[in-house]
């Protein structure tokens, strides 16, 4: 057990701090991300890429910094950027999900065509997975693509497509082999969002905002070479992508920062003339959550160590998404309770609303439910933890393969 | 940065697990519990030979010279196997108290005897530590009078160490004149508590610490980490037993573990329990190496493990159905262990209150 960083990492710490001291004033405000990156964000992204504080391990030929993976270096950079209060770089589904997927299973040509422009924030991607009739049962996707003169011709509907209204491209899971069993009939296509026949309709969420969409496909034509791996291999590719998504959703730094904000809120909020912090029932809730946040944080360090050693973390990694999203929800619920009646004024129509503390907490609290549902819902996570982590038997199969 | 057990710590764990799996089958645990003495000479001799008794005692006094994290690894093993016998108080807290508050001569006189397993010391507090019961002892000269109702590690205790209100520990032999030490028929029969009444009992007061209260707090927090580690092991054992049972038990023509009601319950338990291991490791490491983090992490580890332990105990028992409720299955040994740890050295509610005080979030 050694919690201090060795000389090599302390040197990197100093390097990142110096970078922030020199360039920090050019950083956009952290947060946001529900619109196309601004000019300021694109320029900052370029600086991060040049210094290797973004896409550090992506090959230089694809626009990255080209260093071998060292998770401790990534942890040091993330910590210093969080401490410095600067923007960590553009984070979207193209960067966090499609890029690692192409690196793992894409061709050289596909990597060369897409990765650099994606990590620079110039090409924005959305994810075409869920459908009205296939959510948790993703492999039952019905959106189909028939091959006609060298093109896939796509017809169907996707749902929950975050950011589709401003995206350039979609990675799409659809059925190309209707005669094959459910999991073997899917392909993973790369589709330009400006192709004729695509219609994007905004879907308003419980927060009152339209952050995601329904996307309709009517005879949308895409050349047959716009496929990752081969026909019928889409399920494998989709699972590679999901693996990267779930790693995003249980960040312990975020939970610790939230806890600190709630503590501060409890110290300055009064209820019946008493500081909320001085009311034992509320304080005990905070203290319980502190214990859980600490457990999650050190669990994260344990996983980081195992990852650095190339060990397989098994169950320990499978629990991260469920644990982190539930804890995040319980934290924002406490914040909402501390704000109480005075925090009920709510008008979330535009980004400006997020400068209102109570509105922002209510949005977070509702968004946390979305995080528990998206990226493999909590109930699906529990199946995965129980079956892959604990080795419990699978549910007997009753549903027949879907054919369209 | 390396957040993991060392190779030596993993070997300690493997060696203890192997020994206990071999020497402590359910029948043996049951027999020792039925005897109610909380001490079995043969098992204890074996554990001493494993180096358990001298784990944190310096090598010059006959111990292994290891730290609190090593002791937490051992405590998790003892909890996992619901081991009848003293450890948290007798081995860890008493050794620490002697090292923190004993003179060199007192250390040389007592530590080797603890390391050899010959002296076993129950520990009680005559000042508020967050547990209920009578705890009042006065010192006149070198004589103690008063009562400590629930001293920890009563099983096979040869001595009792009482922390006075000043923070100084005082050591008395259980068979000395003026000492009446009664082993309680406790909820956890494998680790009975000791009710100690003192009437002018001769004692050795350990007063070499510069700050007696601070020294007492370090011992108390180390004890809390040991109980948290013990609960971690006990809860892990209950979860493992429930998972194994769910794979074997067939109802409606299927193993019950294939039903989502059962599957999801077990997934919930694994999800709350697994991060506790990192919390216990951190808290233990903080006692050794991170003084600024030592207090809060010990308090939070104790409180969090008490709560998670209780939840695991309930649901793991429920998964076993009627068998879980029987004496035959024996799950209750772990249940009672977890419940006992919860009530000792600070209930979770009191630990969280103290953690808020320590961080200056409220004023006393």
Number of domains of chain B: 3
Unreliable stretches of chain A: none
Work out the number of β strands of chain B.
10
Structural class of chain B: alpha+beta
> Largest sheet of chain B at a glance?
4 strands, mixed
By CATH reckoning, the class of the largest domain in chain A would read: Mainly Alpha
| Mean pLDDT across all amino acids of chain B | 97
Query: What value does the Rg of chain B take, in angstroms?
Result: 20 Å
**Helical fraction of chain B:** 40-55%
Helix content of chain A: 40-55%
Give a written overview of the molecule.
The complex is a heterodimer of chains A (404) and B (364). Chain A is an alpha+beta fold and 404 residues long. Chain A has three domains: 7-91, no CATH class; 125-232, Butyryl-CoA Dehydrogenase, subunit A, domain 2; 249-389, Butyryl-CoA Dehydrogenase, subunit A, domain 3. Chain A has twelve helices and ten strands. In chain A, a hairpin with a 2-residue loop joins β2 and β3 (151-159). Chain B has 364 residues and is α+β, with helices and mostly antiparallel strands. Chain B has three domains: 7-115, Butyryl-Coa Dehydrogenase, subunit A, domain 1, CATH 1.10.540; 121-205, Butyryl-CoA Dehydrogenase, subunit A, domain 2 (Beta Barrel); 212-358, Up-down Bundle (Butyryl-CoA Dehydrogenase, subunit A, domain 3). The longest helix of chain B has 37 residues, at 212-248. The two termini of chain B are 37 Å apart. At the A-B interface, α8 and α12 of A face α7, β10, α8, α9 and α12 of B.
């Amino acid at each position: 057990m050694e919690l201090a960083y060795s000389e090599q990492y302390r040197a990197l710490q100093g390097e990142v701090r110096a970078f922030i001291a020199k360039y920090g004033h050019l950083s956009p405000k952290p947060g946001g991300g529900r619109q196309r990156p601004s000019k300021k964000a694109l320029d900052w992204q370029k600086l991060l890429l040049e210094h290797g504080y973004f896409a550090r391990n992506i090959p230089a030929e694809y626009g990255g910094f080209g260093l071998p993976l060292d998770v401790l270096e990534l942890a040091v950079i993330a910590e210093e950027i969080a401490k410095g209060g600067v923007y960590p770089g553009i984070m979207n589904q193209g960067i966090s999900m499609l890029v690692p997927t192409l690196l793992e299973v894409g061709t050289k040509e596909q990597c060369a065509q897409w990765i650099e422009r994606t990590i620079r924030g110039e090409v924005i991607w959305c994810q075409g997975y869920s459908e009205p009739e296939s959510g948790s049962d993703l492999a039952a996707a019905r959106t189909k693509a028939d091959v006609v003169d060298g093109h896939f011709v796509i017809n169907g509907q996707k749902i929950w497509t975050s950011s589709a209204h401003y995206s350039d491209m979609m990675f799409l899971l659809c059925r190309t082999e209707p005669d094959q069993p459910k999991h073997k009939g899917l392909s993973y296509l790369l589709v330009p969002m400006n192709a004729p026949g695509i219609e994007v309709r905004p879907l308003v969420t419980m927060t009152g905002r339209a952050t995601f969409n329904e996307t309709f496909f009517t005879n949308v034509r895409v050349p047959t070479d716009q496929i990752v791996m081969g026909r019928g291999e889409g399920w494998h590719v989709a699972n590679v992508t999901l693996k990267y998504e779930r790693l995003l959703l249980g960040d312990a730094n975020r939970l610790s920062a939230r806890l600190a904000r709630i503590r501060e809120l409890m110290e300055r909020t009064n209820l019946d003339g008493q500081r909320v912090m001085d009311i034992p029932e509320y304080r005990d809730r905070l203290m319980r959550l502190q214990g859980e946040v600490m457990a999650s944080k050190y669990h994260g360090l344990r996983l980081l160590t195992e990852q650095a050693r190339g060990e397989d973390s098994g169950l320990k990694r499978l629990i991260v998404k469920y644990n982190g999203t539930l804890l995040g929800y319980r934290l924002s619920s406490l914040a909402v309770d501390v704000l109480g009646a005075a925090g009920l004024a709510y008008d979330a129509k535009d980004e400006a609303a997020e400068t209102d503390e109570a509105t922002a907490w209510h949005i977070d609290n509702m968004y946390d439910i979305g995080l528990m549902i998206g990226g493999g819902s909590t109930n699906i996570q529990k199946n995965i933890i129980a079956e892959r982590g604990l080795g419990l038997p699978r549910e007997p199969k009753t549903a027949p393969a879907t054919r369209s | 940065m390396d957040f993991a057990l060392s190779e030596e710590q993993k070997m300690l764990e493997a060696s203890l697990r192997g020994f206990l799996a071999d020497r402590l089958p359910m029948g043996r645990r049951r027999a020792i519990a039925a005897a109610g003495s909380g001490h079995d000479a043969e098992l204890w001799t074996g554990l001493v030979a494993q180096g358990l008794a001298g784990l944190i005692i310096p090598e010059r006094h006959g111990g292994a010279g290891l730290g609190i994290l090593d002791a937490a690894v051992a405590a998790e093993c003892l909890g996992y196997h619901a081991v009848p016998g003293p450890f948290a108080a007798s081995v860890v807290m008493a050794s620490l108290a002697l090292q923190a508050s004993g003179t060199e001569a007192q250390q040389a006189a007592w530590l080797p005897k603890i390391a050899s397993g010959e002296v076993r010391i129950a520990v009680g507090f005559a000042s508020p530590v967050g547990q209920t019961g009578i705890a009042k002892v006065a010192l006149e000269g070198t004589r103690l009078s008063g009562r400590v109702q629930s001293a920890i590690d009563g099983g096979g205790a040869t001595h009792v160490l009482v922390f006075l209100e000043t923070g100084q520990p005082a050591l008395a032999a259980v068979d000395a004149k003026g000492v009446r030490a009664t082993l309680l028929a406790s909820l956890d029969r494998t680790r009975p508590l000791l009710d100690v009444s003192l009437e002018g009992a001769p004692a050795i007061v350990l007063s070499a610490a510069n700050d007696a209260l601070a020294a007492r707090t370090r011992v108390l927090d180390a004890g809390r980490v040991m109980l948290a580690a013990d609960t971690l092991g006990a809860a892990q054992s209950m979860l493992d037993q429930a998972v194994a049972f769910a794979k074997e038990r067939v109802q409606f023509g299927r193993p019950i573990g294939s039903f989502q009601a059962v599957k999801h319950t077990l997934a919930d338990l694994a999800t709350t329990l697994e991060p506790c291991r990192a919390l216990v490791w951190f808290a233990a490491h903080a006692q050794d190496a991170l003084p600024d983090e030592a207090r809060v992490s010990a308090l939070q580890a104790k409180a969090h493990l008490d709560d998670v332990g209780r939840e695991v105990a309930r649901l793991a028992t429920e998964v076993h159905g009627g068998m879980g409720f029987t004496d035959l299955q024996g799950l209750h040994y772990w249940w009672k262990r977890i419940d006992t740890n919860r009530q000792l050295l600070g209930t979770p509610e009191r630990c969280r209150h103290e953690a808020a005080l320590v961080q200056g979030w409220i004023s006393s």
